[in-house]
């Protein structure tokens, strides 16, 4: 069986780590040669770390790779196991739904207020808009993973 994938999130996480590496390397070289550093690297690196974290978490969620204790699940007969899988999925949806909702509200407030980032003076919402987008993708991956587990398509590693 083909392993489920979250191609978009995997691409975003890969790009984020690549860009973090390149700007950090460039910053070190410039600091060594000139004694100064690029002003933008910290602000962009923090933003890209958030993209990397959510992207990687989404890939792990889709592939059923998040850490959890499956011993109870494996010990249960199918009907209670199904209920447990549904409960786990509902809890994941609740948490991700709250992150998506409040992330979208916070982004909208930043658009209304016209807040600028402290380092570069860019609109703050440019950075914040990724939070509800990526957590929304994680919501989708949670639904996919729960459905796959209910169908018996995703097994935990023993």
Automatic annotation (TrEMBL):
Write out the GO cellular component annotations. plasma membrane
Whether Protease counts among this entry's keywords is: no
Q: Which InterPro entries match?
A: DctQ, TRAP_DctQ
Residue ranges spanning the membrane: these are 12-32, 44-62, 83-104, 124-141
Instruction: Recite the UniProt keywords alphabetically.
Output: Cell inner membrane, Cell membrane, Membrane, Transmembrane, Transmembrane helix, Transport
User: What membrane topology does the annotation report for this chain?
Assistant: Multi-pass membrane protein
Pfam families recorded: DctQ
Q: Example GO biological process term? A: C4-dicarboxylate transport
In alphabetical order, the GO MF annotations are: transmembrane transporter activity
Where does the Tripartite ATP-independent periplasmic transporters DctQ component domain lie? Answer: 21-151
| Broad class of where this protein is predominantly found | membrane
| Compartments, record wording | Cell inner membrane
As for family, the record states: Belongs to the TRAP transporter small permease family.
Listed under subunit, the entry gives: The complex comprises the extracytoplasmic solute receptor protein and the two transmembrane proteins.
Role description: Part of the tripartite ATP-independent periplasmic (TRAP) transport system.
Q: What is this protein called?
A: TRAP transporter small permease protein
Species source reads Halomonas aestuarii
User: What lineage, starting at the top, does this entry show?
Assistant: Bacteria, Pseudomonadati, Pseudomonadota, Gammaproteobacteria, Oceanospirillales
């Amino acid at each position: 069986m083909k392993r489920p994938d979250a191609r978009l999130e995997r691409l975003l996480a890969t790009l984020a780590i690549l860009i973090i590496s390149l700007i950090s390397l460039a910053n070190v070289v410039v600091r060594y040669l000139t004694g100064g550093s690029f002003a933008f690297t910290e602000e962009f690196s923090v933003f890209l770390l958030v993209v990397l974290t959510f992207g990687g978490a989404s890939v792990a969620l889709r592939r059923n790779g998040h850490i959890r204790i499956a011993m109870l699940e494996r010990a249960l007969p199918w009907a209670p196991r199904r209920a447990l899988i549904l409960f786990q999925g509902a809890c994941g949806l609740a948490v991700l739904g709250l992150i998506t909702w409040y992330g979208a509200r916070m982004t909208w407030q930043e658009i209304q207020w016209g807040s600028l980032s402290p380092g570069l003076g860019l609109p703050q919402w440019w950075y914040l808009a990724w939070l509800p987008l990526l957590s929304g993708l994680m919501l989708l991956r949670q639904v996919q993973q729960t459905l796959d587990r209910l169908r018996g398509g995703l097994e935990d590693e023993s």
